[in-house]
Amino acid sequence: MRGLEDKNPGFVDSCYSSVASKVLTTEACGLISNADKKTDCRTRVAVATKNPLTCSEIEGEGKRDCLSRVAVEILNSASESAEEKYNDIYDMLNGRGSHCENIESETSQDYLRNKCYLTVALKHNDPDMCRKITGMVGDSNDCITSIAYQSKDNNLCNEITSEFKKDYCTQSIILDMVKESQNIELCQNMGSVEKANNCYKEAAVRLGFSSACYKLPTGSEQKACISEVVKYNPL
């Protein structure tokens, strides 16, 4: 094969391209010496498999052309997920959530655009998409709360504008961490003594960590906490 490559590299490149088109993988494309033919080979495999990730092997403008051609192929297919795949490719070309901006800016369409941002946010665990939700503060808060839960990042809860929802978000995540780590000291991350004490009570009553009761400041509070533990966690 080495001698053939030296004598007729164009023929060998065409051979590698044919193999790639036959097996629908890009390994053979990587062996092509001509840069343009290598790009074309990878693009044809991406289009044939309707896989935009294959385009990531291409650099420069060729990558954008590859993604565009894959998008057209997907739209022309009968796949139920064609629209979702097209939106993913559109976002790869123009930035995450860009397809949501194409929804007309009218009052009747606000719900659809906000729902679009919410879907993208949850799919990618991206709080920046939550911040794009407009005119529906509650939905923006709920969006951030959902991502905080998914990522187990209680710091995200601080971006919630509702104090009640912020505290609930933080406490819920920390209690999950307490349950998983068996470490009640994590309640100290609640941000204040009062909130930490509420966390200790919840850890004792809801999770059965009776030792958390003794973190409370007074004997009467500790006694009341133990009574709650016995009430809701009978032997």
Strand coverage percent: under 5%
Question: What is the count of helical runs?
Answer: 11
- Low-confidence residue ranges: 1-5
Helix/sheet category: mainly alpha
- Count of β-strands: 0
Helical percent range?
55-70%
SSE pattern, N- to C-terminal: HHHHHHHHHHH
- N-to-C CA distance: 77 Å
Rg from Cα: 28 Å
Strand count, sense and barrel status of the largest sheet are:
none
- Summed over residues and divided by their number, the pLDDT gives a mean of 85
Outline type: elongated
Entry keywords:
11 helices; elongated; disordered N terminus; 235 residues; 63% helix; mainly alpha
Blueprint (SSEs and pairs):
Layout: H1 2-7, H2 9-23, H3 35-49, H4 61-75, H5 82-94, H6 107-124, H7 127-130, H8 137-151, H9 163-181, H10 193-205, H11 219-232
Helix pairs in contact: 2-3, 3-4, 4-5, 6-8, 8-9, 9-10
Describe this structure in words.
The protein is an all-alpha fold. Among the domains are: 2-94, no CATH class; 182-235, no CATH class. It contains eleven helices and no strands. Mean pLDDT is 85; it is low at 1-5.
Put the structure in a nutshell.
The protein is an all-alpha fold and 235 residues long. 63% of the residues lie in helices and 0% in strands.
